Amino acid sequence: MSKPHEEYYRAEVVGVRRLTPNMMRIRFGGDDLRRFRTSGFGDERICVFFPRPGDRHTPEPVYVDGRLDYSDGPGRPPSRSYTVRRWDAENAELEIDFVVHEGGVAAGWALSAQLGDGVGLSATDGWYAPPEGTQWQLLLADMTALPALGRIIEELPAGTRAHAIVEVIFPDDAQTFETAGDVTVEWIHGTGHGHAPSALLDALKAYDFPDGPGYIWLAAEASISRDVRKYVRRELGWPIERFEIIGYWRVRKEEWLARWREKEAELEAVYTQAQADGLRGPELREHYLEALEKAGL
Hints:
Layout: E1 8-20, E2 23-29, E3 45-49, E4 62-64, E5 67-69, E6 79-83, E7 86-88, E8 93-99, H1 105-112, E9 118-125, E10 136-141, H2 146-154, E11 161-168, E12 182-189, H3 200-206, E13 214-221, H4 222-235, E14 243-249, H5 253-276, H6 281-294
Parallel strand pairs: 10-11, 10-13, 11-12, 13-14
Antiparallel strand pairs: 1-2, 1-9, 2-8, 3-6, 3-9, 4-5, 7-8
């Protein structure tokens, strides 16, 4: 179930272009985006509500429990989470990059998007937050997280040291970024993305960590994210404020959801109890992820 959002924005397509063989960039505008509020996170997440089959515009939401959202049911428009690749406050326009492939609601919509097509956009949040005193950053991503990685790199303050390791589908999917930071980028292709085992964990293990306090950010498929989190937390012994590791998507998601539903009540009880015990933010996420692992998820 999608989380209800207090803010909801109507947006229309004002630009479409192919970035690389497997990435489309779509620019959204419209008067309603003039009241858009950015979270400011480099990996700013937004939920996109797509038109239903045969429509060019997403239906208007309704108030559900005092908030603008869609009622659950067959009439609910499909939605997916994406990164706000760039927010242009002056022109009230934002860009979202879509990994395109055969099948899938979002990819199919992006491939056929035309000027004037309408979507709904949610409020935003994000996770990327290097603590004060960080002297270097290691950023790892697959194609789905490449838009977030690109924005993070482009917004780095002058002189910030960072190394990025990016797993893409084809060599031509590599991109260039303008940044004031001191950034190096390593591209890996032909692995991960549901076609082969990911190389991100091995790349992390091979990385020569600089001296001083660092920060690791990774976003990729859920299982590789879990493996990387376990390595960073348990084998490297890093404190949770020094890394953010997120699962952006999941191989065989429907199978996983079926198993999760069998454990749903138990896991919700774990989450509720953790909140009652005062866990918040990264500590709460870490606790819940450990509960998922214990449940075989």
